[in-house]
Design brief:
This protein is about 0% helix and about 50% strand. It contains no helices and 34 strands. It starts with a strand and ends with a strand.
């Protein structure tokens, strides 16, 4: 492993044309006391991951951690996906920021921006203050995909995932957990997904939980292109305890957008005062999830919000066999 005592900083950079750029192997650690950690991994060949943090590998500091991963890989091997950053270990810091880019534009390049996996509650990205992630696949891969693992912040997070051709901007499965545990003001959980893909999943919830326990926080999930889908057969949950709303928005600005919301396997629980809002802007339907609102805020459901009144081409509200409870 690599360690720095006191305020000593750690900066590591690796580049390879034939393999992964920077690898933190099983049971290896990069540790700083109060110094900043900066990691950069670049895989320039067709094979390899930019930064690869293996199971039980760890990156820890009481200060900030910055990670930047890049891969030019252009296919998915049988052994598992390549990604700009793969994290099956643990990253723990004060403010944690990550950028991940899978650059191949081939329609067959099923390469991920960020891939998170491993065991809960140990594997994932953990920030005592802010967590910022910007992950993109310019090919056929998911921008940010988690199969299990955790994204956790103390004073709020912004997670952005972008896919260019066939996949989702953000995909959360395998019991993936996203949580803000802080108590400071404006401790929001923000997810932004976008896709040009035929699947149309800006944000895909396969099996996941998203929660904000902050008294002054909210949850905003936005598909800037594509929709928000939780209709894949396994349960998902969104919970908020704060004074701000739980907001799900697809195609948030244009009447021409076809982004939809499908919450057939989603339960939304709001115990704070912010209420719940589910909106599409254009022709996308809102298939309403189970909503439990025990706070004082209102529940707003709107499909085709940017269309003129009496425009029959707009999206529809669809109520499957779910219960809406608003007390």
């Amino acid at each position: 492993g690599v360690s720095a005592s006191g305020s000593g900083a750690i900066t590591l950079s690796g580049t390879s044309s034939t393999a992964s750029g920077l690898v933190i192997n099983i049971s290896r650690a990069i540790t700083a006391d109060t110094g900043k950690i900066s990691l950069t991994g670049t895989a320039l060949g067709n094979d390899g991951t930019g930064i690869n943090i293996a199971y039980n590998g760890s990156v820890r500091s009481n200060n900030d951690i910055e990670m930047s991963g890049y891969t030019a890989a252009n296919y998915r091997p049988n052994s598992g996906p390549y990604a700009a950053i793969t994290n099956v270990g643990t990253v723990r810091g004060k403010n944690v920021s990550l950028t991940a880019l899978a650059s191949s534009t081939l329609s067959t390049a099923d390469v991920l921006g960020y891939y998170g996996a491993g065991s809960i509650p140990t594997s994932g990205l953990y920030a005592t203050e802010t967590l910022t992630v910007d992950a993109e696949s310019k090919g056929a891969g998911v921008g940010l995909y988690m199969f299990s693992g955790v994204l956790q912040s103390g004073t709020g997070m912004q997670i952005k995932g972008t896919s260019n051709t066939t996949s989702s901007g953000i995909g959360l499965g395998g019991g993936a957990k996203i949580i803000n545990t802080g108590t400071s003001s404006s401790s929001d959980v923000v997810l932004i997904g976008s896709t040009n893909g035929t699947m149309r999943d800006g944000v895909a919830l396969y099996e996941s939980s998203i929660e904000n326990t902050s008294a002054d926080g909210g949850i905003q999930i936005t598909a800037t292109k594509g929709g928000i889908f939780a209709n894949y057969g396994l349960a998902n949950s969104i919970k908020n305890a704060g004074s701000k709303a739980i907001v799900l928005s697809a195609g948030p600005t244009l009447a021409t957008e076809d982004g939809a919301i499908d919450g057939r396997n989603l339960t939304i629980t709001q115990t704070g005062s912010g209420g719940v809002e589910l909106t599409t802007s254009g022709t996308g339907n809102v298939t309403v999830p189970a909503i439990v609102n025990t706070g004082s805020g209102k529940v707003l459901l709107a499909a085709g919000q940017q269309l003129a009144a009496c425009n029959a081409s707009g999206g529809q509200l669809v109520f499957p066999s779910v219960n809406l409870s608003n007390s």
